[in-house]
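The material for today's practical consists of a large collection of protein records. There is nothing in a record beyond a sequence line and a structure line. As an example, a complete record with its sequence and its structure tokens follows:
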Amino acid sequence: CRCLLRWAAWRRQLLAFIVLSNVVAFGFLALVHQRAPLSIMEWLHFDMTLDAGSIASVDFLTNCHATPFQAKLHRGRMCLPMRYLDCSPYLGADGVLTRSGTDSDRFEREGSAFLQEYYNRTGSRHPRYVVTSL
């Protein structure tokens, strides 16, 4: 019977370890990991509500889908003018989906040379804020 008691105690300790490690992982993933995109959107929303009379524009020069975008920045029915780099995949000549040659791909490869061309395009505007990622 002593073996059964040891086995039960060992199982309780293992279960406690698994639960505790999952709580720690959940806390890290929920509160720390990838926090920057949410923080910048909260800051932009806060700044937008402070300066309610002006309409700020924002450009997102980030990886595809790196921020919540419109989900956090709107005033009732009015949304801020925002742009993000095109990263839409398309079928290449060989029939394979690719994003090579899109704005986000060119920004990753060419950096500042791409930015000069991007902001000198016909009809391009200069935003109040530019959000980038490393």
Q: What stands out?
A: The two ends are 60 Å apart (CA to CA). The mean pLDDT is 82. DSSP finds four helices and seven strands in the chain.
